[in-house]
């Protein structure tokens, strides 16, 4: 079985993109229909660009670097639950997008990858939050899940239950996040890719 090996140049680029990614986490925008602890950023942007240029594994490693550096710099305010969620949803977005592009490297394939990746992340985020992240966070905080419902219901009148919290808050949050990130990625990738692809092919 062939294993992909990264060159020193690629490792350097992955590290740089991971660092840029964690810096982008500092630029956050709250959305009016989402909980206060969920703020939008475009930190997956470098991972998507790296995934396009160097493959899905590179994109995933950039996601991991982003999360680890953020923990080192900021620690955690969510008992690492937020970081776990970030790993799950970011990986779903980046890996799906990069895998689709890898098999047909064209503009059409890139756009298809971003669309399917956005849908994948939104679904994975909604399901993982419903079944894992919110219940785990509530358990660690020693509060009832309805506490989250009450918190979000104050700013989003469509939220009346735990289920509607996911449908009308978590799901649209991720749809907006992936749309904005995909838009910026599509605008920047062609300008940045020549630099990343220079001496940057993955050897089998």
Automatic annotation (TrEMBL):
<dbReference type="GO" id="GO:0032217">
    <property type="term" value="F:riboflavin transmembrane transporter activity"/>
</dbReference>
<dbReference type="GO" id="GO:0005886">
    <property type="term" value="C:plasma membrane"/>
</dbReference>
<dbReference type="InterPro" id="IPR025720">
    <property type="entry name" value="RibU"/>
</dbReference>
<dbReference type="Pfam" id="PF12822">
    <property type="entry name" value="ECF_trnsprt"/>
</dbReference>
<feature type="transmembrane region" description="Helical">
    <location>
        <begin position="48"/>
        <end position="73"/>
    </location>
</feature>
<comment type="function">
    <text>Probably a riboflavin-binding protein that interacts with the energy-coupling factor (ECF) ABC-transporter complex.</text>
</comment>
<keyword id="KW-0813">Transport</keyword>
<keyword id="KW-1003">Cell membrane</keyword>
<feature type="transmembrane region" description="Helical">
    <location>
        <begin position="162"/>
        <end position="189"/>
    </location>
</feature>
<keyword id="KW-1133">Transmembrane helix</keyword>
<feature type="transmembrane region" description="Helical">
    <location>
        <begin position="6"/>
        <end position="27"/>
    </location>
</feature>
<protein>
    <recommendedName>
        <fullName>Riboflavin transporter</fullName>
    </recommendedName>
</protein>
<dbReference type="InterPro" id="IPR024529">
    <property type="entry name" value="ECF_trnsprt_substrate-spec"/>
</dbReference>
<feature type="transmembrane region" description="Helical">
    <location>
        <begin position="79"/>
        <end position="101"/>
    </location>
</feature>
<keyword id="KW-0472">Membrane</keyword>
<keyword id="KW-0812">Transmembrane</keyword>
<feature type="transmembrane region" description="Helical">
    <location>
        <begin position="113"/>
        <end position="138"/>
    </location>
</feature>
<comment type="similarity">
    <text>Belongs to the prokaryotic riboflavin transporter (P-RFT) (TC 2.A.87) family.</text>
</comment>
């Amino acid at each position: 079985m062939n294993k992909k090996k990264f060159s020193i140049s690629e490792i350097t680029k992955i590290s740089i993109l991971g660092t840029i990614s964690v810096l982008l986490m500092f630029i956050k925008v709250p959305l009016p229909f989402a909980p206060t602890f969920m703020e939008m950023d475009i930190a997956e942007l470098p991972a998507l660009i790296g995934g396009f240029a160097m493959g899905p594994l590179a994109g995933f490693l950039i996601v991991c670097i982003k999360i680890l550096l953020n923990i080192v710099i900021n620690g955690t305010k969510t008992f690492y639950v937020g970081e776990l969620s970030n790993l799950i949803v970011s990986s779903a977005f980046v890996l799906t997008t990069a895998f689709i592009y890898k098999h047909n490297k064209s503009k059409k394939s890139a756009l298809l990858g971003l669309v399917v990746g956005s849908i994948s992340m939104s679904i994975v985020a909604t399901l993982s939050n419903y079944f894992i992240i919110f219940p785990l966070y509530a358990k660690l905080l020693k509060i009832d899940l309805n506490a989250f419902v009450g918190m979000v219901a104050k700013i989003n009148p469509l939220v009346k239950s735990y289920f509607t919290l996911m449908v009308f808050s978590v799901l649209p949050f991720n749809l907006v996040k992936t749309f904005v990130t995909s838009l910026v990625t599509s605008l920047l990738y062609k300008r940045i890719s020549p630099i990343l692809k220079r001496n940057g092919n993955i050897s089998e």
